Amino acid sequence: MWNPCNLVSSSAPEGSRLQLPVLAPVSGKVGLLGDVPSPAYANGLFGVGVAIDMAGHRLQAPFDGILQDQTASGEQLRLRSRQGLELLIQLGIDSHKLMGEGFRAKLRSGQAFTQGQALMDFDLNLLKRRFGVAHCLVLISQTSKLSGIQAHCHSMLAGQEPCMTLHFR
């Protein structure tokens, strides 16, 4: 059976026609979803991409686009780039249990943003205290045109380097 998580690797696939880097929305160390303590995310139920072990307190826009929506509890955002790429960003695995505590949104659904713009501030200490670890999951569900996703598995600053590069057929 085909597993969409097989698209993600730390190396670039051969023969991709187009590459699109996705800047890290938070500071921290990038890793693979398989390292996340949630089978739903690790198995690609919500999309494929990378997990960032967060070291900062601000979520920044990885590209120019629109905030499509955000959960009422604030920990999950859906972004759409000007080119139509949809990205799901999840701050923390079980952070919905905080019921919005520790998340301060900077935009409302439907508002435009530019690359590097602050989208949200969050309480990293609260996330780590309550859940032991704080991952930011950067996921894409539109995989039909992808030949692979290269995860850039090292520490980085938000908005400075790509956390992953999408490779298109």
Strand order of the largest sheet: 10-6-7-8-12-4-3-14
Number of DSSP E strands:
15
Written as H for each helix and E for each strand, in order along the chain, the element string is EEEHEEEEEEEEHEEEE
| Largest sheet: number of strands, sense, barrel closure | 8 strands, antiparallel
Give the uncertain stretches in residue-range form.
none
Shape: globular
Helix content, binned percent:
under 10%
Strand content: 35-45%
DSSP helical segment count: 2
Structure classification: mainly beta
How many whole angstroms does the radius of gyration measure?
15 Å
State the end-to-end CA separation.
21 Å
Mean pLDDT: 90
Description:
The chain has 2 helices and 15 strands. The protein has helices spanning 39-42, 124-131; strands spanning 8-9, 18-23, 28-32, 48-54, 58-60, 65-70, 76-81, 86-91, 103-105, 112-113, 118-122, 135-140, 146-151, 155-156, 162-168. Residues 38-142 form the PTS EIIA type-1 domain. This is PTS system glucose-specific EIIA component. Keywords: Kinase, Phosphotransferase system, Sugar transport, Transferase, Transport.
Key terms:
4-stranded mixed beta sheet; 8-stranded antiparallel beta sheet; 169 residues; mainly beta; globular
Sequence-ordered SSE layout with sheet pairings:
Blueprint: E1 8-9, E2 18-23, E3 28-32, H1 39-42, E4 48-54, E5 58-60, E6 65-70, E7 76-81, E8 86-91, E9 103-105, E10 112-113, E11 118-122, H2 124-131, E12 135-140, E13 146-151, E14 155-156, E15 162-168
Parallel strand pairs: 1-13
Antiparallel strand pairs: 2-15, 3-4, 3-14, 4-12, 5-11, 6-7, 6-10, 7-8, 8-12, 9-11, 13-15
